[in-house]
Amino acid sequence: MSRSNQNSFSRRDFIKLGTAGGITLLLGRLPTAQALEVNSGPSTTEWIGRNGKPKFRWDAIRKVTGQKNFSFDYRSWDLPGWPKEQGYAFMLKASDAEHRFEGIDLSVLGDTLQPDTLLMQKDLASKGLEAPTSMGSGFYGKHILLPVGETAPLLGHPVAILFYKDFDRFEQAKRKLSFEKNAVKYGEFTGPKPPANYGAGRFVRIGGKSPYDPPLFAPFQNGSIKGGFHGNEVIWPPFEPDPELFIPEVIKRKRGSGFEDSLHASTLDPSIPAQAMDAAMVIADEIEKARSNPDKIVLERHGFSQSIDPCAMEPDNCTAWYDASTRSLHIITATQSPAGVASAAAAMVKDNTQAPVERIILLTGSTVGYGSKDYSVFPYYAIAACLYSAGMPVRVANNRYEQFQLGMKRHSFDMNVTITADRKTGKFDILKGLYTCNGGGRENLSVAVSHVGARGAQSIYYFPKSDLATVAMASRAVEAGSMRGFGSLQTMSITEIMVDEIANELKIDPIELRRRNALLEGVQNTQGGVQAGDPRLLEMLDLAAKHPLWSNRDKTKAEFDAANPGKRYGVGFAQVQQVYGSSGDPSILVLEFDSNGKLSMRHCAQEIGTGATTAQQVMVWQALGKAPDDVEFGVTEFPELPLKSAWADQKLQDEFSKNDPYWVPSIIPDMSSSASVYYIGFATRQAARFLLEFTLWPAARAIWSQGAGGGPISSFNVEFSDLRIGPDGLGGGGMKPIPFEVLARKAHEMGLITGVAVHTFSRWEWARAEFDIPGVGVRNLPIDALALRYGDGAPEPLKKRMTTAGYDFIKRISATYPPAKRSSAGPTTYTPAACLVELNVNTFDGRVQIMRHHSLMDPGTMIVPELVSGQLQGGTAMGIGHALMEELPLYEDGPGNGTWNFNRYTLPRAKDVAVWTQTADYLPPLSETSPPKGLAELGMIPIVAAISNAITHAIDKRFYEFPITPDKIKEALV
Question: Alpha helix locations (H) across 30-166?
């Protein structure tokens, strides 16, 4: 792999994304000299030991030594090929969403601090610039800036961009306008004018005779219900003729968990929503009957989960430069979805008449966003500004006030939930819920979040019948999006508290009640799908029940309360399971080595703080006994695999998979949904295993066969399954290990496969394809695209096949993709976790002190245990903040008014999270072949409900609304 030139970008530094609207999209990595975390080029392997165990993260040295790492750290003069001077811009925003915007007043700036360029929406619209529509109309809002005469659809909506050529004037002007109420002028009162509501869906299931039998009706097998709106009232089918009725479109692939396909089915067949509504009526009737049945318990509760800020260390930022000489748009920004930024930027500028764009070149740094940088609207303000800056790069970067005002939030949820159960057996009968999430004034991923929330509401339990309705509402609140937890944090927490209350009512130990209702292997979820593998929920519940915190809780409470007047001791428990993956998960990479044993990897994974770039390399070592010497991460074009993608229903998918070896359902993944270690890493493991089986094994066999009588291997029966990787290389079966470098030299000498490019795809089931591999034969593999590179000693006919970027693209003989409707079965891949919390409540001031917490998790086979521990500890701290402290008002007194910062927003500190008394246990993998499980979102979820349940144990008051603040506790104790 070529190295970057320190003075200019080489072709390999720019990764082609394809074209959109006639614009070539390129994604680049900053050169090695810039020390960017996800750099292209050579990489030291000192971070990993000879035993394959990391000594520290691959990116650790750059981070702890303060080198440039985030895109926030970079200025135009740091970037080869960019101008050495840059300009600066900031936005004025509407802090009023009930009056018409009438313009701006910059008189406070005087004559000396007026902007060099002032942009209003009329300036942008006159040149054909509007909010991107790449994810559907309204996803990023209607306008880039608020037009004069309109009421802001959300608080904090930008109304103007002020551009300055020099930093000093920019900084002075920004300070003067930061809290200047008269800078933005308002007129007539209109009341709130948010967009139309975003979506409503309903998922109804009536199970069969047993949890294992086919359901009578389920979203996976049949379909779902698509709702409409009359104002803010949700209307379910059948729809009567009504000119005021609004039914949101079903937009395909808004990155949920397959809900689009289930809802789309209802639009194609009118009988599906009719059947689903009939099933919902059956469930409603059973709930009514249960109310009068002394053998049943019916628990109905209202819950609320608040809006919070993700508080990522790096605020949103983007620097953009339009180079008129080449008609190129250069961007460096913080994002979890590089391909999404590039395609949205192309959609935004393709028809503009201000500055014709033929190429988009995107640079990304490492980032941490907890989901808030996934499809963020922020980069498009800098892009708009740079088209008017006369060729000067424009930097737009939030300070913390601006980040609170404009940055994406976690959705608040309003929930009404009913659970029915049998009093004698404690077995659950019905889960019925209405889950309303507040998406604020831009749609973003609100529909996906609402549906994932509804699907996660079952937590770890089997319900024979379920009716889960979900609503994504529009409001004037600040935009909410893809924040960690993605809806299921909110819904599972309420379910877990209700389970404790039912246990109390039935006088059953809360863990025992969970045991009686836990999902077992092969049992269906609320969508009619079956969870992958053994859930291991009972095993985890048994461990929790035996833990001293739980088994001694009543005795310890009596002793603590007697010894601490005014304080009350409590222990709480909750267990959940969180989905990983998103029903359409691709992955792609290239792995190759030269005759000297230099191993190189180009990979689609991008670092977002979880350690994904470290884990992918460890997976390579585990298969080959060597970590890459040269790595490129965040790659989005692989010329070795000239793939194409287009949406397809079942009919089109069958046609493409049969006739077009270049077609795949999706090419590049986003870094989201806790998908990196299993779904994105699946391709890594397949590529490395391919080289192990078809390259290193034949090379090792040849070496071990050298000498008289067939060599030292001849008297043994060494098979592929006997191979083992160790500190000294590839061995096993009684044979002496061979270092990777020796095997690489032999493989090149023999002309074996020395490079492999693979693409994988899962829709809750892996795609497979048959390939006729030269020298190997026909193989059916869990990949859907393959290209090969042959060694130096390969015969000329093989070398002549390497015509696709130096690779031999192997056209698949056939491909088998999961059925299109299988996306509706999900989620089916989960990771379970439980938490025990020990706390005390001060009955005088209402404060809660977390004394200790113990977590349980089933991570599968841990690739890097330290990364798992870090995710769990960080997630637990976030969960404590959500449960007890963090909260943002939604409307005029909330962050949209521009006055919020950490002086008003409470985050947990080390003293609040029992940092020195936290413990954790991990279930060992079921076998050495158990795969790793995604878990980045999971760590924060169970502790939220566990804290509420512990407070109930302490003071005998139950809380369903978060956060549980001292004021709420004092009010409950009155």
Answer: 60-64, 121-125
> 684-709: b or e for each residue (b if 16 or more CB lie within 10 Å)?
bbbbbbbbbbbbbbbbbbbbbeeeee
DSSP state of 248: -
Under-70 pLDDT residues of the chain: 1-42, 250-260, 673
CB 433 within 8 A of CB 490: no
> Mapping DSSP to helix (H, G, I), strand (E, B) and coil, where does residue 939 land?
helix
H-helix or E-strand spanning residue 159:
strand 158-164
- How crowded is residue 647: how many other Cβ atoms within 10 Å of its Cβ? 11
Among the listed residues 387, 529, 424, the one whose alpha carbon sits nearest the alpha carbon of residue 819: 529
Please give the structure tokens belonging to residue 319.
């620097």
Given a contact cutoff of 8 angstroms between Cβ atoms, the answer to whether 71 and 312 are in contact is no
Q: In sequence order, what DSSP letters do the residues of 364-401 get, joined into one string? A: E-B---TTTTSS-STHHHHHHHHTTSTT--EEEE--HH
The three-state secondary structure class of 725 is: strand
Supply the pLDDT for residue 9.
36
Q: Is the peptide bond before 963 cis (omega within 30 degrees of 0)?
A: yes
Q: What is the DSSP letter of 652?
A: H
Strand partners, 833: 576, 857
What is the residue whose two structure tokens read 């007194």?
893
Residue 127 tokens, joined: 């040149």
Type and span of the H or E element at 842 = strand 830-842
955: its two tokens: 């003071």
Q: Could you give the CA distance from residue 149 to residue 151 in angstroms, rounded to a whole number? A: 7
Instruction: Indicate the average pLDDT of the chain.
Output: 92
Neighbours of 556 (CB within 10 A): 16
Q: Which residues contact residue 519 at a Cβ distance below 8 angstroms, ignoring those fewer than 6 apart?
A: 460, 461, 462, 525, 531, 535, 537
pTM above 0.90, yes or no: yes
- The residue behind tokens 């790595």 is 631
Is the CB of residue 676 less than 8 Å from the CB of residue 605? yes
Locate tokens 């909750």: which residue? 574
Q: Pull the structure tokens for residue 53.
A: 């165990």
Task: Measure Cα distances from 676 to 28, 610, 778, 924 in Å.
Answer: 21, 9, 30, 21
* pLDDT value of residue 137: 87
Q: How far apart are CA 866 and CA 872, in angstroms?
A: 10
What's the pLDDT at 7? 33
